[in-house]
Design a protein that fits this description.
The complex is a heterodimer of chains A (287) and B (282).
Chain A lengths: L3 H34 L5 H10 L8 H14 L8 H32 L1 H13 L9 H10 L5 H24 L4 H9 L4 H35 L9 H11 L2 H32 L5
Helix pairs in contact in A: 1-2, 3-11, 4-5, 4-7, 4-9, 4-10, 6-7, 7-9, 9-11, 10-11
Chain B lengths: L1 H22 L6 H25 L10 H10 L1 H35 L2 H15 L7 H8 L3 H24 L4 H9 L4 H36 L8 H10 L3 H29 L4 H4 L2
Helix pairs in contact in B: 1-2, 3-11, 4-7, 4-9, 5-7, 6-7, 6-9, 7-9, 9-11, 10-11
Chain lengths: 287, 282
């Protein structure tokens, strides 16, 4: 709670800068309009106009808030103009992909930890793949799957799965290896089998690592789902809202979609953080 | 059918060799540690080639590696032009500006405990957001050319870099700072001789995270609009024309550029933080 006041101060500062920037960036258009109409404008007129333009260079925060309210609360959620509708499409692809990617990632990590050949062959590639802009293949996956008749949720989920896969593999391998030699020796003195060691020592010990990489993974999944919505050409989803906003110069719509995506990301990461706290506390590892 | 059988046999043979190598007494040698993943990578390529040829997968779905290599060889000038546009102009300039600005601002906010407590949670929150979504806005503000891509990269790398640098500057111990005080060192002397060197592992962690983000930002921003060159532009237009060999060629270039960029930063890190335990071992 000690940091509440500084955080609020910083947020207030950001909003203030945003307003100032909105006035500065939008004023040019107002002056142009006034020059064309041949009227002299006072500073307060410019200020007022910069807040209410239809297609501002930078919409003022309250314009974005109004757009968010309109598209989230006012519209029916089945409406194609509702952000909840678009948000849900993105979130469902994200979650499906995240579950697939995490599941496969954990399986591969288990294989890597128990099979030396797999460890030596796959692990360097898994690490190297994190330095590669994997997101670049998103358009190709969408179009290729489209050409073989797979559409809608699945291609986006595959991109999400792909993006969340590698962080989970790397984190989970580190986690499964985190028990030290002492603990492994203790299991050996109990005459525990490999399976028992896995369930009773390695898996529980890996949980903090798993959750850390899950947070990275879900954020990556969301980015994957949003980018996956671009190549199909603005059909549905938050990415489509961004794209159609950029086609038609609807800056307020872009910013609303952006803020919505930010809220979704924060909520998803927050949920994982909450599960992490509860679970680690139950396991006696909480702080 | 012959190709499929060949792929299967090659797979089995490579698996056997890797299995033997990794459990043999040689397993901890450096050469073997390089050979095993190389064999694995080769196997993937051979199986890919064999399956695509054997099962007659059309090139518009998955071109075989040999065709991709051929495309890379044939279109080197285009690939180079795209590389310069996206990587050198977009990603590198944005990377330098974003990381530089984050570094300077981190030093400024490091002086105020209030700002630290406020900015750090906000920055780590922003670092987790899908910042790539600002790409359409930047394209609108800065035009289609590389300036807008650099702007996206700046926003993407700024916050991870800021968080890491601030944490790094806080990482010197009270004891060490006290020692500097007994030497009569001022703020700047302490900063340059103690706190910045101590912060280097954190700073390089931020720089390494930022390399990948920079390339992703520059490529994805081109999906929203670009002059008729650039890796992201080429990928999105060639996908539209179903020229998948060209797409794979660009992806190969992006992968090599990404790993090389990361590798160079990691090498510099090795030189700068030679004293750190993680660099000394081995």
């Amino acid at each position: 709670m000690k940091s509440l006041v500084p955080v609020l101060a910083v947020v207030a500062g950001i909003v203030a800068i945003w307003y100032a920037a909105a006035v500065g960036l939008n004023a040019q258009w107002t002056y142009d309009q006034a020059a064309r109409a041949g009227v002299e404008l006072g500073f307060t007129d410019v200020l007022r106009d910069a807040m209410v333009q239809d297609r501002p260079v930078l919409p003022a925060p309250h314009q974005v808030a109004v757009e968010l309210y309109d598209t989230v609360i006012d519209k029916k959620i089945t409406s194609k103009r509702s952000l909840v509708y678009h948000g849900w499409i993105t979130v469902s692809a994200t979650l499906l992909g995240f579950v697939i990617g995490t599941g496969l990632g954990i399986l591969l990590a288990v294989g890597i930890v128990h099979n030396r050949a797999m460890d030596m062959s796959v692990m360097p590639w898994a690490i190297a793949s994190q330095t590669i802009p994997i997101l670049a293949i998103a358009p190709m996956i969408i179009v290729v799957l489209n050409s073989v008749g797979v559409q809608g949720l699945v291609p986006k989920a595959i991109i999400s799965a792909y993006l969340s896969f590698f962080p989970v593999v790397v984190g989970m391998v580190a986690g499964l290896r985190s028990p030290d030699a002492m603990q492994l020796d203790l299991m050996r003195t109990y005459n525990a089998s490999r399976v028992e060691t896995f369930w009773k020592l390695r898996l529980p010990a890996s949980m903090p690592y798993l959750f850390t990489s899950l947070k990275v993974g879900i954020a990556a999944s969301l980015v994957g789902a949003i980018v996956g919505e671009l190549p199909t050409g603005a059909v549905a989803g938050l990415g489509a809202r961004l794209l159609s906003g950029s086609y038609y110069g609807q800056t307020v719509q872009i910013w609303a979609a952006l803020i919505a995506a930010a809220c979704v990301a924060a909520a998803l990461v927050g949920i994982i953080g909450l599960v992490q706290r509860l679970m680690l506390r139950r396991m006696g590892m909480g702080q | 059918m012959g190709w499929v059988i060949f792929a299967a046999v090659f797979w089995a043979a490579a698996w056997w060799v890797n299995g033997r190598l990794s459990t043999s007494v040689l397993a901890d040698q450096r050469g073997v540690k390089l050979i095993v993943p190389t064999i694995f990578g080769l196997t993937i390529l051979v199986v890919w080639e064999g399956l695509v040829r054997g099962l007659n997968v059309p090139g518009v779905i998955l071109p075989p590696p040999s065709v991709i290599v051929g495309t890379i060889g044939d279109s080197l000038p285009i690939l180079w032009e795209d590389f310069v546009q996206t990587f050198v102009k977009g990603a590198l300039s944005g990377y330098a500006m974003g990381c530089g600005a984050a570094f300077l601002i981190a030093i400024v906010i490091d002086r105020s405990a209030f700002l630290q407590r406020g900015l750090l949670p906000v920055s780590s929150f922003i670092a987790a957001l899908p910042i790539i979504g600002t790409a359409p806005i930047m394209v609108m503000w800065f035009g289609f050319d590389w300036q807008s891509k650099a702007a996206v990269v700046v926003v993407m790398v700024f916050f991870p870099m800021l968080v890491n640098t601030v944490q790094g500057l806080a990482s010197s111990e009270a004891m060490q700072r006290d020692l500097m005080r007994t030497y009569g060192a001022g703020y700047w002397q302490t900063l340059i001789k103690l706190r910045l060197p101590a912060a280097m592992p954190f700073i390089f962690n931020g720089l390494k995270i930022a390399t990948t983000l920079a390339l992703i930002g520059a490529i994805v921003a081109e999906f929203f609009g670009s002059p008729i060159r650039g890796m992201g532009f080429r990928i999105s237009t060639e996908v539209g024309r179903l020229g998948l060999d060209m797409v794979w060629a660009e992806i190969t270039v992006a992968a090599i550029a990404g790993s090389a960029f990361y590798g160079i930063v990691a090498l510099i890190e090795k030189g700068v933080t030679f004293w750190h335990p993680s660099q000394r071992a081995g």
